[in-house]
Design goal:
Chain lengths: ~375, ~400, ~375, ~400
């Protein structure tokens, strides 16, 4: 039985934590929060690229570190803990994995080295309005060489250089790689519940694009891509949930009411115990997702979905009850609780909300049972 | 069992309604104004009009400019007024909680000086109890008052004060003796909010808004004659203030089952059985709360004192609101993260209330405090063990 | 505003409580519990008939008291509090209301006076297997004069003299009144989760029956009957939930651990506060159901459903957390907690479980909104 | 990251499996026996076979008849044994908790007299701590031991004792000094369960079964030489007993997501979206629990001490079980009330576990105690205020 990260991976986690606590501390997050014109921390992003993290799961032949998905999971958790205000997920999960999954050798050799070098920022453009985007009824179209249509919202859409676009092609759907410096791209900045991450509406008007994979394979490729992304996002959520529990614990120990720390009240003790239980359930499911992700296991659909469902629930509960534990202080702008509450919501609805993943999970269980 | 007014109640309702129709527009007939300064002037004018027509304080005796009406008439007035665009906000706390405290504990001079002007909308009051380190445990407050001749010198900080920036006066609870157990060393004063040393700073809330304030007191001097009640009796005075909180008569805190049902119908997700079951639960809870208020009103209408059943209100509504908004956002999926009123279904009310709901679970008693209150005051279960009960305040641990 | 029972109705409640606490105390319930051959307390049933309660909502012309449904609600709550082991609901809700709703004058004049006199015990036979019975696909048939088929389970089916049977007739459904002394009736006693109430499987083989209402109106009549029954059952549930909270409160005040009553722990205080909130929500919704029931209001469908959903939830929570509050003692046969837990489940699934009523509620809201 | 054994673990697993296959039938290959008397004989025989082959107590030193194995080997043994129809129940508590306490605190004579016989399945032990008025608060127990010459005279009552009716010996925690605070007046003894004055009565549980017992002690005499640890040190001894509770290695307490999913599929309710979402939640929780045990086993496999993560177990599984059974019954609607194994889907396992689940939420630590334990021991939050901490036991209030 070896159901844990390795010593090397834990060392990486430790180093990442030290780096991020120094370089992505809350003041860095608040710079982005408080400046409407700032969609990410450029300085932090540059340092992350210099650390080589963007190439963690990119093969050495394309300039990456050639490590595996487990190392990505470790980094994702640490990014989630500090609410890193950078397009890490957009670039290192969505764009990188889409190119690795379905890009031609030419595309891989073009894009991946530039991701490693920090020259490219990615984004994933699927949503077109309220509700989970259905590959069967997209309004954005791809005609084999250009994309037209509007995607909203696109996380990091305002700063990205390249987008992975889910578009209709003929009667099916395709995943299309779009260079956003191309013709016909319009970007509009959006206000969202999580101003520590940039969002935009992207409109394409006959913008050149390259299909990833075969025509009409988009729905299937998108499912595979979402499974991979789901595990990585789940680790970010797990990191956020863990940090929220730590915050609640620390505050409840230092805050006195009625002559003793509020942490001595069963109402607080049991609330934090609930957080702990949810976080451990999430951690174990995330580990299983990491195992499936790193081994291309056939259990990937249910493992990814379970990790995502558990981590979304854990982060939601921890972030809202962290505010509650802080009382009035937790409802001020200056205290960081609301940043976790905001991020919890963003991560929960990105790449499909809990309802979407619960349905995916049950479908996977049905198929397994039928097989 | 029916939902009808008695003949007397119906007559009063008609009178109230006629008065309201004469002076105000029904809610929703014009877009809500966001003009804060003008709002204050309008509120003062409306208060004056009400007072001149004996609709200002329904249950107050006529001696103080009230109507001498019943608690049920007060409920009816609240129901009717809430159907109109009535600018009442700035006066709710002052006339609902502060001035009744002045009437109960103030001298004749106080009453002459303050009551009429407040009633006529000329002066606005705020309530200064909570402190950064004294929220659920209000009696643990630290703001100090030190006697200096015929005056008291105040230093300290209050927090979460509604309307402090436009208030003329406040009732202020401070510590006058730190050598005795915490409840026994408090005293209540009337404070002039416009005097030197009083500094009001808006609080930037987690939701982004700035509806509340911090109030800093630096060497603020209050004459001993502006004391309410005895020195050391402040907690007793404060309990009267808090008991005067008005019976809540409506005013949903945000979107409810009907709004999310409408959204789901418009966006094709009303067929989802999981959503339907949640909707049923929300409806049952919302109805439960609304109908419980009807039970309370029935007691009032019969001239009885309402039972404790109304205490379930905020525990239900605050969590409910957070859950409904969260569900609506999750139904919108990634799109739900957008927080722009002009782009979003229902003018982004789900998003905005999502950010407001955590505050509602805290303000005016956290979920946990409210459950303690139900357990202790309604069910008669024992109080929590109080380690600080007999300890002098200055020997209490405070982190 | 007059949203409460009248003084007369409250007086009736007080008298009923006194009577039932004396005559239907727990030893009476346990006689039925501990004796497999006993399906109800005959002595108590006789006394209830003598009190005239069976005729509460039966018109004076048929020998009843000619009071209204509000008085029935009051009695139902009191029956629920003491877990009265008698076929009150089967007789005074199901059979009485079915006959009042759809019986011919002849049927009314035959049946109702005998109900008042305590000569008739009713039962309601709809279920035919797992799942809520669907009037469109019943296996039990009515040919205009006889019923054939099997109903399982039938509460009080072992002791009833008359059954209201939901049966297929042609392409529709009908409600049929069956005299169980007729030909072709077989009864088999069933073990259930609530042995304080009798249950049986009833098999009909060309058993004579009289249709209530017109042929094929059964589905609609059944819906109307269920709405009425739902409100009355909700009051029974409310009574049970209120009693469970009282038991939990009393025990937590007298049980000491760590040198003080366990009622002083926030874990217990907040648990009981939750019970109280659920019970008050249930009470208010039940009142609304009572109002709709007593006034034949058009709001009846949503009022009945809301009362039923709220009361089922309240009784479920109160009964299970009452055991939990009692700790080990609560899990013994001798302590009464399990009797409430058992009854809570029986009342929750009788006349349709919570899922059924939630769906009815939302449908009613949709129709109201569409109108 | 993988789920494979190390080569050493694989070798041990193969050895264990070969041994098990030689002696037992795989689970499910024959209907479970309900013959209680025979069960006891079979259990004794199986225990003897295990002991003779060094599979009885994997982690015990060879000196005591164990294998001197690792904690991971113990887990592997548990996993493999649980796949067979192994009659282990009667020995779990004795060898898991009682005898290790004898080894830790007993004299050489005790160890010679008791350990080997227990290991060989010749004598069965039970644990006598809980009392009617001392459940969550075990240290509040009242059973008295009074010194009389070289003997102690015991009077009192224990409760919820598994296996008391077939046990030969027990470890018994009693109060020897009521004049000191409660934890300080306790002493532990070995008691012969077959002696006069020991009366065992089965408890009729709310679920209908009678798996546990009350044990009454009336003037039972125990020689002082059968004391374990010092007089007054019983709480310290008891903590060692409780820490010896075996690492749970499987054994679901009843139907889980797979069973209810199977039921729903067979009965056409798997398409209900509300059910599907609940199913997803149950799966996630069950997996969370199962995978958390894998994390614990990983630590063991690496020779490390497991973290506190395993403490989440019973809180999840007990509530989970109650919820799943309740949902299954509600899906069956009125039919779900029937509790007959031959008539009901899944042999009425949902109905039977529905009645068992409330007990699971209490036995071995209530939900509330377990949350306190997580809060205090895992998260390091303060203990509850203990009003009885320094109070002599006989001055404590006990209702």
């Amino acid at each position: 039985m070896n159901f844990d990260f390795s010593e090397d991976q834990k060392f990486l986690a430790g180093e990442a934590r030290k780096f991020l606590e120094a370089e992505s501390a809350i003041p860095v997050v608040r710079e982005v929060l408080n400046d409407d014109d700032k969609a990410y921390s450029e300085a932090l992003w540059k340092k992350i690229a210099e650390m080589g993290w963007l190439g963690t799961a990119i093969p050495e032949e394309q300039g990456g570190l050639g490590l595996g998905m487990l190392e990505m999971c470790v980094l994702a958790e640490e990014m989630g803990r500090v609410l890193a205000p950078v397009p890490f997920s957009s670039t290192a999960y969505y764009l990188t994995e889409a190119v690795k999954l379905a890009g031609s050798d030419e595309v891989k050799n073009d894009i991946l080295p530039r991701i490693v070098a920090g020259e490219i920022i990615g984004c994933y453009a699927a949503s077109e309005g309220p509700g989970h985007p259905d590959p069967a009824s997209l309004k954005t179209t791809f005609d084999g060489s250009t994309v037209s249509g509007t995607k909203i919202p696109v996380t990091d859409g305002g700063i990205a250089t390249h987008a992975v676009v889910l578009a209709k092609e003929g009667s099916g759907a395709s995943l299309v790689l779009v260079d956003l410096s191309g013709a016909g791209v319009t970007r509009k900045t959006l206000s969202t519940l999580d101003p520590t991450r940039g969002h935009a509406e992207l409109t394409f008007d006959k913008t050149p694009g390259i299909r990833l994979g075969a025509a009409g394979d988009g729905a299937s490729l998108n499912d595979q891509l979402m499974d991979k992304v789901a595990v990585l996002l789940a680790f970010e959520q797990l990191g956020g949930a863990s940090r929220a529990l730590e915050m609640a614990k620390a505050y409840s120990l230092e805050r006195y009411a009625f002559g003793r720390p509020i942490a001595g009240n069963q109402a607080i003790k049991h609330k934090l115990a609930e957080m702990y239980v949810k976080n451990e359930v999430a951690r174990s499911n995330c580990f299983y997702g990491a195992w499936a992700l790193s081994t291309d296991a056939p259990e990937m659909p249910e493992a990814a979905a379970a990790a995502r469902v558990a981590a979304s629930e854990a982060f939601w509960y921890a972030s809202k009850e962290n505010i509650q534990t802080h009382g009035g202080m937790g409802f001020t702008w200056e205290v960081d609780c609301h940043l976790y509450y905001r991020r919890a919501k963003l991560l929960a609805v990105q790449a499909g909300g809990p309802k979407v993943w619960k349905e995916k999970l049950v479908r996977a269980l049905e198929q397994k049972n039928a097989a | 069992m029916d939902f009808n007014d008695t003949p007397e109640e119906a007559a009063f309702r008609a009178e109230a309604r006629a008065f309201l129709e004469k002076h105000l527009k029904p809610k929703g007939s014009a877009p809500a104004s966001r003009d804060r300064v003008n709002m204050l002037e309008k509120a003062k004018a409306w208060q004056k009009t009400k007072a001149e027509n004996k609709f200002a304080q329904i249950t107050w005796p006529e001696e103080w400019g009230g109507r001498g009406g019943t608690a049920m008439q007060n409920v009816i007035w609240g129901q009717e007024e809430s159907k109109f665009d009535a600018p009442t906000g700035p006066f709710a706390i002052g006339l609902g909680m502060c001035v009744p405290t002045v009437i109960a504990f103030g001298s004749d001079e106080h009453k002459k000086r303050y009551v009429q002007k407040a009633l006529m909308g000329e002066e606005i009051w705020c309530q200064l109890f909570s402190e950064p380190s004294a929220g659920s445990d209000v009696a643990g407050l630290k703001t100090r008052a030190v006697k200096d001749g015929d005056e008291w010198v105040i230093n300290g900080q209050k927090v979460w004060t509604s309307g402090a920036h436009y208030s003329d006066f406040g009732i202020l609870l401070v510590r006058t003796d730190p050598k005795v157990p915490k409840h026994k060393g408090l005293t209540m004063f009337i404070v002039n909010m416009k005097q030197p040393g009083v500094e009001v700073r808006p609080i930037h809330q987690a939701s982004g808004g700035r509806e509340f304030n911090e109030v800093y007191f630096t060497d603020v001097r209050i004459p001993d004659s502006d004391r309410l009640g005895d020195v050391g009796a402040g907690w007793k005075v404060a309990l009267v203030t808090l008991m005067n909180e008005r019976l809540a008569v409506g005013g949903s805190p945000g979107p409810d089952w009907a709004e999310i049902m409408e959204y789901a119908r418009d966006h094709g997700t009303l067929s989802d059985q999981a959503f339907r079951e949640k909707l049923a639960d929300w409806y049952v809870a919302a109805q439960g709360y609304k109908l419980t208020k009807f039970r309370t009103q029935t007691a009032l209408s019969r001239g009885q004192t309402p039972g404790p059943e109304n205490s379930i209100g905020k525990i239900i509504t605050a969590n409910h609101l957070q859950d409904i908004c969260n569900s609506a956002i999750e139904m919108q999926d990634h799109y739900g993260i957008i927080n722009e009123t002009d782009r979003m279904p229902a003018d982004a009310i789900f998003q905005q209330s999502f950010m407001w709901a955590p505050g509602l679970r805290i303000a005016g008693g956290t979920d946990e405090i409210l459950k303690n209150i139900i357990a202790e005051r309604v069910l008669g279960l024992p109080q929590d063990v109080r380690v600080d009960k007999d300890l002098p305040f200055d020997q209490m641990k405070s982190g």
